[in-house]
Amino acid sequence: MKGRTLEELGLAEVPREDPLSYPGAWPADSGLLLGDRMLPLDRPVHEDRTPVVAVGSNACPGQLRHKLARAGITSALPMVRTRVTGLDVGVSAHVSRMGYVSASPVRAPEVWRELFVIWPDERQLAVIDASEGVPLPGGNYARAWLPAPDVRIEPADGSALPGAYVYVNRHGVLHDGTGAPRAHPGQRALLTELLLGSAPLRELFGVTAEQFCARARADARLCARGTRLFAEHKWVTESGLERYVR
Question: What DSSP assignment string belongs to the chain?
């Protein structure tokens, strides 16, 4: 079997088990995730599968392997490095039970980013949906279709997709103090900034990023209280993608 292991590539970390590593390591290029290996990818578009733009840990092979393996799925998953225009990576306005504050897409018409489009099959998509709380009532995310030309998604072969799905946070995103969505700087930096900015948040989650992660993972009710606190602080704004959610 060709390809290299995730361990060899430095892609084996699992943010669900190590929250401060969120969003995890992303591959340097497109590939086919098969178990614990990354294999060469033969094409960038997979018409028999569903395209999903990953803005957080769904671009981390270790995280994807963890999600799929727990469901007993070992089939291959294409991951395509893609130029995406019209989206940026913001901060979800909720505290995850996994112990981190995750990334969430935001509308950004003049911005382009190198992001991964993953192409799950039907079974894989169901597992990834469930990991994002889709379609559970009260789930944190909705899977929304973003059509071209609202968002332009260009694989390396020069083609353009007719659109793709993203997971839009139902709580909105955190803003940067001016009302604009804030960028996600990585988990440790983000949690440190949030804790410094709120005495009530420190009372709930402690004074360090490590304490925040440990307490969040241990208590779902505490996560819900932290999510409400974001809104009470008026730290929350819209992602600009709400109109795509059905």
Answer: --SEEHHHHT----TTTSGGGTT-PPPSS-EEEETTEEE--S-S--TTS--EEESSGGG-HHHHHHHHHHTT----EEEEEEEEEEEEEEEBSS--TTSS--EEEEEEEEEEEEEEEE---HHHHHHHHHHTT-SSTT-SEEEEEEETTTSEEEETTS---SEEEEEEETT-EEB-SSSSBPP---HHHHHHHHHHT-HHHHHHH-SSHHHHHHHHHH-HHHHHHHHHHHHHTT-EE--S-GGG--
Q: Which amino acid is at 49?
A: R
Q: What is the pTM of this model?
A: 0.95
How far is 189 from 238, CA to CA, in rounded Å? 22
Structure tokens at 192: 């440190």
Cβ 241 vs Cβ 170: under 8 Å:
no
pLDDT digits over 131-164, tens only?
Answer: 999 977 778 999 999 999 999 999 988 899 999 9
CATH superfamily of 4-244: Gamma-glutamyl cyclotransferase-like (3.10.490.10)
Taking the C-alpha atoms of residue 117 and residue 148, their distance in angstroms, rounded to an integer, is 15
Question: In which residue are the tokens 């039970």 written?
Answer: 97
Query: In whole angstroms, what is the distance from residue 54 CA to residue 49 CA?
Result: 15
Distance between CA atoms of 195 and 236, rounded to whole angstroms? 16
Residues of the chain with pLDDT under 70: 1
